[in-house]
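New to this. Please check this record:
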Amino acid sequence: MEVAIHPSWKGILKEEFEKPYFGALTQFVKQQYAQGTCYPKGKEIFAAFDYCPLSEVKVVIIGQDPYHGAGQANGLCFSVHDGIIHPPSLVNIFKEIEQDLGIPYPMSGNLERWASQGVLLLNATLTVNAGQAGSHQGQGWETFTDAVIKAISEHCNQVVFMLWGGYAKKKASLIDSSKHCILSSGHPSPLSANKGHWFGNKHFSKANAYLTSVGKRAINW
C-alpha cells in the first residue's frame, strides 16, 4: 500500500508512517487486497485527505468503518459513489439536514461536495473486506486515525468535530476543547435515530454558526 496522500499531510504524519505498526498495517492491507475484494479501491483509501488538505480542515466527521457492499465505499465516511442507493445512516443524515436547514434531500450520496469545502470525512478504519463489516479493525488503522485527530487538534484552530455515537464520542479525549468546537449526539443509524438520539441535533446549523462566528465560511451542506 503506497501512502499516496495529499502533501499537506505528509510532514505532519511522517512519524506515523515510519512506525512499526504502520509497516505491519501496510503489509496486512496489501495481503488482503491481493487475496480478495476489499473496499474502497486502493486509490481511494486516503481520499478523505486528498479532498481536504490540512490547512483547509474546518469540520471533522468521524465514522467507524467503510461500507462493505459492492460499489459503495469511496474513501469518505458515510459517503457513497454516485448512483448508489443511500445506506440508512446517510438517509438519516440527509433527513436531519433537511429538517435543520431546509435543504432538499439530494439525489447523490457522494459527499465529495462536502470534502472539497473543508469537511474531513474520516473513518477510524480505512479499509474492509467485501461483505465483512469490521474485518480490518484492530490492525493499526485506529492508531493512525487517532494520530490524525490529535494532529488536527494540535495544529489547526477552531475546527468543528462532529462525534456521532458511542465510538466517535470516545475520540473527544484526543481533542483540545478549549480551541475547537465539539458537537456530540447519537449515531444516525436507524437503531439510534429511531430512539430519538439523532434527529433534532441541529449539528449542521450549529457547525455553520460556529464557523461564521470565528470568521470562516459556512459549509454548503
Remarks:
- Residues 3 and 42 are 10 Å apart (CA to CA).
- The chain has a mean pLDDT of 96.
- The first helix runs from residue 7 to 17.
- DSSP finds nine helices and six strands in the chain.
